[in-house]
Design a protein that fits this description.
Layout: E1 6-9, E2 14-15, H1 17-26, E3 33-36, E4 46-55, E5 58-59, E6 65-66, E7 68-77, E8 85-93, E9 97-99, H2 117-123, E10 128-138, E11 144-157, E12 160-167, E13 177-186, E14 189-195, E15 204-213, E16 216-219, E17 222-225, E18 227-229, E19 236-246, E20 257-266, E21 269-270
Length: 272
């Protein structure tokens, strides 16, 4: 089920709270973000539609079980212009989600940096933990290109788990884009920090994405899962403490940097 997100913006931008909530109420299972300033025409301001699901939804209370995570999003502007580029996302989950990599093959970033999608998947086939697709827009031409996403396990050391997101096909620059997600446990919270490098020297911006994490593997004859979840009271809540967008294409009328914050809820039903 797709869930609604309520967002806040930093700086002088103003959240259209009433309009956002009203629109979301009319379109079930859709998450809508709307940013605007106190004037009618304010070019380049962001809007963000995001949602996701964790299945199975019925889980045995506090017991962790293998799950599949699906996330989708769309980034644009209120005026239809080129959006700022998403460069960093910091997500915190208080409880209910765990990443387990012990026994799972790993992939090194250097193997992915100059590889096509097919070559990357061939080099690190056993380390794949998810896949998806995305679209990228280019400010200089207005063109849009589709790309394939592949998520690889980068391994765990010193309580830090790395995941690499590889994208290549359809992008105008010949060099593949490899984003890095670092996941660590902070007290009772799970924190994930995703950093996306500049696309086409800052000319490209992510327009939409759709991916899933779902990897099962065996260790010592026992089936394990990369992603596991319980069902805490009220479900799992992901807090986006920082979503950093940069106007690397220098689009006129757009702030050099925008930071968004918000929450996304994944409801569940406890069976035990």
């Amino acid at each position: 089920m797709r869930r609604r997100v309520v967002w806040l913006a930093s700086g002088s931008l103003l959240l259209l709270f009433g309009a956002t909530v009203g629109l979301a109420a009319q379109i079930p299972h859709r998450s809508v973000l709307g940013i605007a300033c106190p004037v009618i025409s304010c070019p380049g301001l962001l809007k963000f539609d995001v949602g996701g699901s964790i299945t199975p939804r019925k889980r045995a209370g506090r017991e962790f079980v293998p799950v599949k995570l699906k996330v989708h999003g769309e980034i644009g502007t209120k005026t239809g212009g080129h959006p700022s580029a998403l460069r960093e996302a910091v997500v915190e989950i208080a409880e209910g989600l765990a990443v387990r990599t012990s026994g799972l093959a790993t992939c090194r970033r250097r193997k992915l940096e100059s590889a096509s999608v097919s070559l990357a998947r061939r080099k690190c086939r056993k380390a794949i933990v998810g896949a998806g697709q995305a679209r990228v827009g280019f400010a200089s031409t207005g063109d849009v290109a589709a790309t394939t996403l592949t998520l690889f396990n980068g391994g765990t050391s010193d309580r830090l788990t790395r995941m690499f997101v590889h994208a290549s096909a359809g992008l105008r620059n010949s060099t593949p884009v490899v984003a890095t997600a670092k996941v660590r446990r902070r007290h009772s919270n799970l924190e994930a920090v995703l950093r996306i490098p500049p696309i086409a020297q800052g000319n490209g911006s992510l327009l939409n994405f759709d991916f899933e994490l779902d990897r099962r593997f065996a260790r010592r004859g026992i089936e394990r899962s990369y992603l596991n979840a319980s069902c805490p009271d009220g479900g799992i809540v992901a807090t986006f403490s920082k979503l950093l967008f940069r106007n690397e294409a220098k689009v006129p009328g757009t702030a050099p940097q925008t930071v968004l914050k918000g929450k996304l809820a994944f409801p569940c039903t406890a069976t035990g």
